[in-house]
Amino acid sequence: MIMTEQGETGEAITILLVEDDAPTCWRLQDALAKAGYEVRSAGTLAEARQALAAGAPRVLLTDLRLPDGHGVELIREMRQRFPDTEIMVISALGDEESVISAITVGATGYLLKDAFPTDIATTVRDLVAGHSPISASIARFIVRRTQGAAQNSAEPPPGPALNTARLTPREIDILWGIAKGFSYAEIASHLGLSKQTVPGHIKNIYRKLEVHTRSEAVFEAVQQGLIKL
Amino acid sequence: MSEIAAKAPTKAPTRPRRRLIASRLVPYLLLQALIVIVTILGIRLLQPSDPDDYAVDDFSAREDGLTRPVTLPHFTSSRYSLADPPIYAGTFTFRSGDAASGWSVFLPRFSNAVEVAVNGVVVLDSRRDTNANRPDRNTPQIAAIPASLLREGGNEITVRLFVWGPLKGFLDTVYVGPDAALRPAYETRTLLFVTLPVVFSAWQAILAVILAIMWLMRRHEPVYGVLATAMVLGVVQAFAPPPVPPATVSHLAAVLLASAPIESALIVVFGVLFFGWRWPRYGTLLFVPGVLVFVVGLIGGPPLPRILFLVLGIPTVGLCLFLMACVTATAVVRRQDAASFTIGCAVTIVLVCWVQDMLTVLDIVSNDRIFVSRLSYSAMLVAIGAGLTWRFARALNQVDSFAGQLVTRVREAEERLKASFAREEERARAAALANERTRLMRDLHDGLGGQLVSIVALSERGSTGASITDAARAALKDLRLVIDSMDDIGGDLMLALGSWRERATAQLRPHDITLDWRVATPQGLPLHPELRPWHVVQIVRILDEAVTNAVKHAQARRIAVTIDTFDAGQGPYGVISVTDDGGGFALAGNGEAAGAGQTARGLRNMKSRAARCGAVLDLTSDSSGTRVRLKLPQRFPDSDMAAG
Fold first, then answer.
1. Which domain holds residue A158?
2. Which of B482, B487, B514, B562 should be substituted to probe chain A, the one whose Cβ sees the most A Cβ atoms within 10 Å?
3. Which CATH number characterizes residue A77's domain?
4. Which value does ipTM take for this structure?
5. pLDDT for B74-116, tens place per residue?
6. Confidence (pTM)
7. Integer-rounded Cα radius of gyration of chain B
8. What is the domain count for chain A?
9. Do B522 and A136 touch (CB under 8 A)?
10. Pairing outcome for strands B153-162 and B74-76
């Protein structure tokens, strides 16, 4: 196992870990530090903001429920101030509710709190390499929401609001493949793609699901005919 | 004694009924008696008054070569020939002082026709007036006497009375005087006995049309048709030209004038139908006299119809009126409603008029030979027709209000239905929620609960490390499974298997075991719209168990999951196989007793889970590996097959 993770410049990759539960925090920190990352940790939103004053981390890992606020606020701030930072949400169950709300403000994946240390390190490494991880259940949630939008149902579907209008048919096909448990290689061969392009597509999907600002949200809504001006 | 005692109870119930009938019939009969009196008085009072100052009633009548002095009104014998009619000769005094307005001769009543001559010159021949030739219409006649004919002082007047049987000839008092003095009396009689019947007939014609239309639109109510027919007959009778002997007229016109018995029989039919009874078959006999008059009249020609009409027709009319009176009286007793009362009173009036006319015809009552039954009958028909139309209009109103009520009721029913539907929906939702809760409880109890308990037990025993971690991980995994299973996957089991693959891969990675994933068909498994979360939980637990067994007990290095779809002609079904390259259960069983026990229990669990979902589990194990084959059903069962 490689003991030190380094960025393209050779410097150690910095991670800001925001997690209020101390044992979980230690566990993740240990796993990441062992893998060679430079980890700073924060227990609250205030501490996280303080840590940001010193400079932008390469990766932000944040829990959503924090004692003094919601992780979504932090993610949104981060996307605005440091667009290059990769953001991942830490979740106990990886449920759609929390993960999707994080994705819409700019997160590009999630990390399970009980993941094995090796998996934690691998996930972060992939993220830094530009591979946004996506789980079958999140993919399933997104594609089912695209179906719901196509059916034009009068009632808004349960769960967090999600705008799937900008997704291309190909991206939706990829999501279907992931939802059904196919690997990237299998998806690529089914769809006639190169295996290497699949992670890029997933990153695009995340970007398209992100609602950057209020005005953009309004713009989106108008584009989709949700609001009549 | 005993017979009386035995009879008493059977008689008892009829007594109150009789009393009831009596209590209803007696007042009605009293009312009818009152109407009879009023009618008779009315006929007397309505007798038109004539200008008696100008009456000429001393005549000498020459009949069959015999001359004798008579006083008018005078009856003469019936005859069938117009040759040699009775001639009445009289004198009147003319004073030229009264000549300003001209003088007229006025004959209020005669039958059947008169020819009046003054000083030998004919001034009036009533045979040219068709109305005057009807014996049933008391048509008066008036004629101006040309001034040149009149002589100061005594003048001669002769009246030739034409009679055609079977009725006796009749000549009422003749009035000669200034036109101004005679004209009003003439006008009054014309109005009463000529204009009024024509008005009634016109009215009858209109009602006949209305009733005929009603009957055409409502064939199941013949009562309208019967009344319309009666009215048509009445109208035809009123407007048919009466034949004047010796003129040869069609037989048809002759018999149409004698159609009154048929008409009255129709009225009886109407009465019976109107009050809701069935027309008895023998009731047709009532038409026999009328038809007889008709047929004989058609064959024989005049004066046969007239004779038959007198001897057969008029009694039939009377019989019909009597029957009608009985019918209405019964209706009054039974129904006690306005319609039966009104018609009953009308029938009584007509009956009285008929009796009066009969008495007049038979010379029992001297009434200046004014026939009133035809007039009263027409009035009755008009009243009945108007009443029927009124009833029809009222029925239409009832239909309208019924339609309104119906709309209201439908709306109410709709509201009730909506409410009950909402209630039912609420109940169904509550039931579904309760079911889901039960399901969730069982799922949590089966997995998470047991694992948490074992964590507690392990930590109480002070054990550290792997066992607690494994139990906690299993608990988390199960929690994720339960949460995951709640998501709507639209019947596509592949979506649930996709998540499971991720979890299994993560689970196997630390053990360095590879998970081969092979989906034989591009679309994966067939869709199952009936797939429920608890099915998913059971299937995923079976797969978990298979993988856990492979890791823990068979020390496998490679686990392959194959998803395949088969179709044996009865619809497609899926098969999920979990194959490992481990040592198999038999070997593990021999080497490790405890492990074997656990494996056996796990196997039982897997089989029962499969059975609950209607799936079939097949396990083969040998030293080269283990293969768990789960054959999914074509249709997942609605209820938990092993529940309870």
1. 136-223
2. B487
3. 3.40.50.2300
4. 0.80
5. 888 777 777 778 888 888 888 776 656 788 899 888 888 888 9
6. 0.54
7. 55
8. 2
9. no
10. unpaired
